Amino acid sequence: MNEDVMLVLAGGAGLVLGAVFFGSLWWTIRKGISSTRPALWFLGSLVLRTAIVLAGFYVVSGRHWERLLACLLGFVIARFLVTRLARPPVEAHNVAAKEAGHAP
After folding, report:
1. How far apart are CA 1 and CA 79, in angstroms?
2. 82 contact partners, CB below 8 Å, separation of at least 6
3. Quick check: helix, strand or coil at residue 34?
4. pLDDT digit string (tens) for 17-72?
5. Does the N terminus or the C terminus of the chain have fewer Cβ atoms within 10 A?
6. Angstrom distance (rounded) from CA 15 to CA 32
7. What is the distance in angstroms between the CA of the first residue and the CA of the last residue of the chain?
8. Which of 76, 67, 90 is nearest to 10 (CA)?
9. Cα separation of 77 and 71, whole Å?
């Protein structure tokens, strides 16, 4: 029973780590595009995001591969959730596609 609770908690931690990783990636892209030094934004963000996630995986796993796997599963689920939430509205995409057809 105790190990089942730990697996659920590891999955929840993976969700949080994934939300932090992919949410900050989305934020970095938005900031980096308008920055005068985008390479600094992207490189700094990559190093920081990767360090946070690797440290989180290490702490959560506690040298148990089952917890690491549950954390990784939560991380992947968070990727799908963040990409779904950060997607532009469908109407804006359709309007842009229609306007692209009117170019000379």
Report:
1. 29
2. 18, 19, 22, 23, 26
3. coil
4. 999 999 999 999 989 999 899 999 999 999 999 999 999 999 999 999 999 999 99
5. C
6. 25
7. 67
8. 67
9. 10
